[in-house]
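Lecture notes, unit on binding sites. The following record was shown on slide 14. It pairs a sequence with flavin-adenine dinucleotide.
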Amino acid sequence: MKNWSGLEKWNPSEILLPRSEEAIQQIVKTALDKKRKIRIIGSGHSFTKLCVTDDILISLDNYQGLVQVDKSSHQATIKGGTKLKKLGELLNAEGLAMENLGDIDAQSIAGTISTGTHGTGANFGTISTQVRAIRLVNGLGEIIVCSIEENVELFKAAQVSLGALGIITQITLQCMPSYKLKMVYEKSSLSEVLKTYQSINQSTRNFELYWMPHTNTVLTKKANITNEEIDKIGIGSFFQEYILENIGFKIFCEFAYHFPSKNKWISEVSAKTLSTVIKRAYSHNIYATVRAVRFNEMEYNIPIEAYEEVMKEIQRSFEKNGFKVHFPIENRFVKGDDIYLSPAFGRDSAYIACHVYSKKKHKDYFQKMEDIFRAYGGRPHWGKLHTQNANELLQLYPKMPDFLKHRVEQDPEQVFISPYLKSLLGIF
Ligand SMILES: Cc1cc2nc3c(=O)[nH]c(=O)nc-3n(C[C@H](O)[C@H](O)[C@H](O)COP(=O)(O)OP(=O)(O)OC[C@H]3O[C@@H](n4cnc5c(N)ncnc54)[C@H](O)[C@@H]3O)c2cc1C
């Protein structure tokens, strides 16, 4: 097995793909009896060791689809293994859509919520905030249901749970009637955006930006709901997305890999070539973009009040250290929530993400960026690279003790606990 970026490689002793909840229960009960360990994998898109195990690995790839739709409340119950792309199509066929999404749709819905995956939009929480109920098979092989009305405290633990409470078999999502988005990509400057991001966030449903390192240039991406006709998907959009954005970018990455001194130049050239692009599509076809170039990533959540200062520090760090990096730095905005292990717990936030081509070394650069994030109370994205240990995470997550209490209740024999989870959660 390997994760998406190829950074993590591991050999589970068994890989199981159950087709029913009863089969999932049986696997857990047998593992419990035989004192074996289980990890769950969605699409393997986390950059960290979350799915790594030398024992049983369970995938719910054979456990996908809609369970139930309630059109009056716009709620849909989905099997945990359902991939976001398929989910978007299934919901659209019912006239529904998710209110927000991240920038790819390859993940499973259970994997998505388990790490606190988010999109952008100052009025939207992480995707876990769209969840209304969760059904899981716990470490005793029991079926447990929790929701906004039932087992409410457990629900807050299960909304972001790293696969540490059990195997999520069903998720009920609060959706909305399907809608179209108009997305506008434009060139701007970082100094301008740092002055205006609050008002842009007020007037824009989903706002994010990519800073081109070593320059003052950013690419802004703004989306609002529209009634305009959707674009025809033709050869032009194929050329833009697949050829220019991916193959062209891959060539840049290879060039910068072989000629490290050219990273700054590549970033400057990329900044100069940015132009305005407008896309209109149904929501499930527009949030996600193709990510054909493999990279490693670190992303931190920081309190929104610190956003401007953190970006200025990052700029200063680039000037001082001259990092051989040309990958844009992505900035997104997310509303605070009350989910125990959500990086946006208790605060409106900005998320800042740094990427490095998968063939290149990332540690020194990520460490310097992480030092900045940590100085401002940053909390790492659970699915992305970071170096925080259990003691440090305990300081960042005031509800960590509550989460751990539920973990012990749901999985007293530590069936779902791996060495990596021990290092994150401080379990002995
Ligand atoms: C190219 C790329 C783009 C990305 N874009 C974004 C983005 O826009 N926003 C963002 O926030 N993140 C983003 N991510 C990170 C990604 O969304 C998260 O790492 C997410 O968890 C991956 O989903 P997955 O299905 O691959 O889960 P995996 O990585 O396979 O698993 C993640 C966690 O979920 C657990 N899990 C999986 N299935 C279950 C289940 N059924 N029950 C219980 N636990 C389960 C696993 O044990 C593990 O702990 C991106 C990653 C990549 C590689």
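Take-home: The longest strand covers residues 180-189.
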